[in-house]
Design brief:
2 copies of one chain form a homodimer. By secondary structure, the first copy, chain A, is of the alpha/beta class. Chain A folds into 4 domains: about 160 residues, Molybdenum Cofactor Biosythetic Enzyme, Chain A; about 55 residues, Molybdopterin biosynthesis moea protein, domain 2 (Alpha-Beta Complex); about 80 residues, Molybdopterin biosynthesis moeA protein, domain 3, CATH 2.170.190; about 70 residues, MoeA, C-terminal, domain IV (Beta-clip). The first copy, chain A, is built from 8 helices and 28 strands. Chain A has a 6-stranded mixed β-sheet with strand order 7-4-6-5-9-8, with no helix packed on it. A 6-stranded mixed β-sheet of chain A has the order 16-13-17-21-20-18, sandwiched between helices. In chain A, a hairpin with a 2-residue loop joins strand 20 and strand 21. In chain A, helix 2 runs parallel beside helix 7 and helix 4 packs parallel to helix 7. The first copy, chain A, is elongated and about 95 Å long. The first copy, chain A, starts with 8 loop residues before the first helix and ends in a 5-residue tail after the last strand. The interface between A and B is large, with 116 and 115 residues.
Chain lengths: ~425, ~425
Amino acid sequence: MRDSQPAVADVRMRGFSSRARVATALDWIERNVRALAPEAVALDHLYGRVLAADVTSGLDVPAFDRAAMDGYALRGAETVGAGEYNPLVFELRGAALPGRPYEGVVLPGTAIRIMTGAPMPEGADAIVPAEFARECDERVEVAAPFATGKHVGHRAEDVRAGALIMQSGRRLRAQDVGLLASVGVDAASVIRRPRVRIVASGDELVAPGGPKGIYQIYDANSPMLRALAARDGALIESALRVRDDRPAIREAMLAPGADVVLISGGSSVGAEDHAPGLLAEMGEVVIHGIAMRPSSPAGFGRLNDTLVFLLPGNPVSCLCAYDFFAGRALRLLGGRAADWPHRRQRAALKRKIASAVGRVDYCRVRLTGGEAEPLALSGASILSSTTRADGFVIVPEESEGYAPGSEVCVYCYEAFG
Amino acid sequence: MRDSQPAVADVRMRGFSSRARVATALDWIERNVRALAPEAVALDHLYGRVLAADVTSGLDVPAFDRAAMDGYALRGAETVGAGEYNPLVFELRGAALPGRPYEGVVLPGTAIRIMTGAPMPEGADAIVPAEFARECDERVEVAAPFATGKHVGHRAEDVRAGALIMQSGRRLRAQDVGLLASVGVDAASVIRRPRVRIVASGDELVAPGGPKGIYQIYDANSPMLRALAARDGALIESALRVRDDRPAIREAMLAPGADVVLISGGSSVGAEDHAPGLLAEMGEVVIHGIAMRPSSPAGFGRLNDTLVFLLPGNPVSCLCAYDFFAGRALRLLGGRAADWPHRRQRAALKRKIASAVGRVDYCRVRLTGGEAEPLALSGASILSSTTRADGFVIVPEESEGYAPGSEVCVYCYEAFG
């Protein structure tokens, strides 16, 4: 186009000059979107949630000295000189199991059988592991020396009472949940998950599975947005399909219950694009029109306490605008890191990517033999380009694109298994 | 130990020689664990699931030629010669919107207003984008030429009826769900999620949140295993705490309803370790005792159609044994890739890791300034070592460990955000 129509370049440039920079949009989100209020959540549902407060242990773990091996508890000093050809003999006086301590005192010359995790009995200070001992009648032969303290797990060696074990803002991993359990925690204060309403607008949309007229299309954006929002930790408050109709869209925007409204379709400047105008009338349009490809008609704003994202109806644009802006806001609301959740990989470009200074491009690529192959950029409506792709490359606004062989950063779609 | 007790090295080696190689255990899992049967799942719940059958499109997407821009539909050949200083004028005869086509024919010298996604009207073959046109009264001035086909999205350009759009075995990403929706699919055949029963055995265990005697401990393994199994796509059938009691453990192993039983504690060779013997009596012990640290008392087997994993009670060993063996089996049952789900990163070791030939080590490390710092290896009971760690290094059985500065592969714990 640039080559064939030089005379109208300024018309296009006027179009661009009215669009916000991607950096401006991201910056607004970063500065204005804060984590939601905390809520108490039970232990079994804490995995992946974000702590809203520091957690301090109320107790020592373990709460007592204990055996770290299956074997025999005795006085370590008495094993000096023991060897395979010089076994030393101890009288066996009892046993200790986890939760079932030996109640007596281990006297000189004696030992008790003990299992891993059992409390150390009074008098004993070392464990001889079972494979270094031989039990026979009421006695045990010890075939190696074990100094005082050997194979004894000490009180509080894992966690000390009063210690800060996890900090506010931490996203809980499986073992974090385990550690909380080990100090007796059965619920924790975590950031509330954002509630998202998905609104697919368009007279032409019908639900998948039902009948469809020739000029109708199945709504692909609602299920895709549902999946994306789930990835970013949101709860789906509701998912609606509405006609290109001001009252219907107004109602979908205004109904209480959502922290974020994602509106796909009707976000541009056409006659049937009601959402931006309604948002401007009832709330605040922060950004509308962004210097990027695809998704340039995207925008967002506020309506009371709700963030409203205007996502283009073309599915690739919808995906891209969600990922650049809405997903970031959802992660911030949920207390997560704002940055792209995608795994990144460096790769050499197989073919050039053409862009333009002043515009950010989202370019789908396939990874083949360590190279990143750009898929046809044309057609924000070609959703199958994103299912054929392994990820995308972002061309920053200061770049005109990348030559073949350039090393680029590929953001990989869902980093599954 | 090796330096101070050379005389007893062969005793330890006898212990080792009775343990299975990690590779043997992994190989058995790979050869014996197959994906579960398919089930039909509704569109809104397909994200992250694994397709059990190929999906072919029943229709063209789009089903008609359509406008790819907001603008004016006309005959492209009639715009030849148009320019900013030589606008060409067309009579405006109507409009087309998505789902609301223009019913007439676009005749020579005429145009209709058209919105992105609207069906192309008969007679027209190109779109003039709105920014290259000016509308005035019943006419539109066109300021640039647009050849036949320009800005027209063609029928089936996204998906052709009859085309294979997704293959069996694919784990569905957000845009995959969108593409399925776009061809009208409202449910798909996916691999069933494995149902897991978690059994924490031990007389000393109590539920977090409740009161605890001095020699009791809070059960950390059940909530940790619940989180790990969720990560690997499993459903929790139930989670039980049972005493070290043969009938209770037998009942927990035999009850129907689970594809996998994870038993933590009581997996070793001590007097109170009932699980291995029960499994041998009622089913098959495939592996018991593995040449690794921690987790050497781990094992697994089969009981009717259920896989049973014997996980050590020490929480680090439990985590490690789950991740090496049980998690892999769950992923395979669910149709996912068997390999570690962890993000990997190369890093130089800050301090040496000591291991022994013949044994696989699982060494927790912290990543600091691009270096991997090993955390104290001692103490399979020190769960906080895994919450302080960023990931782990696996020392293979043929290695005696790594010198400081060695480049190692770090498996990062949950690749969150």
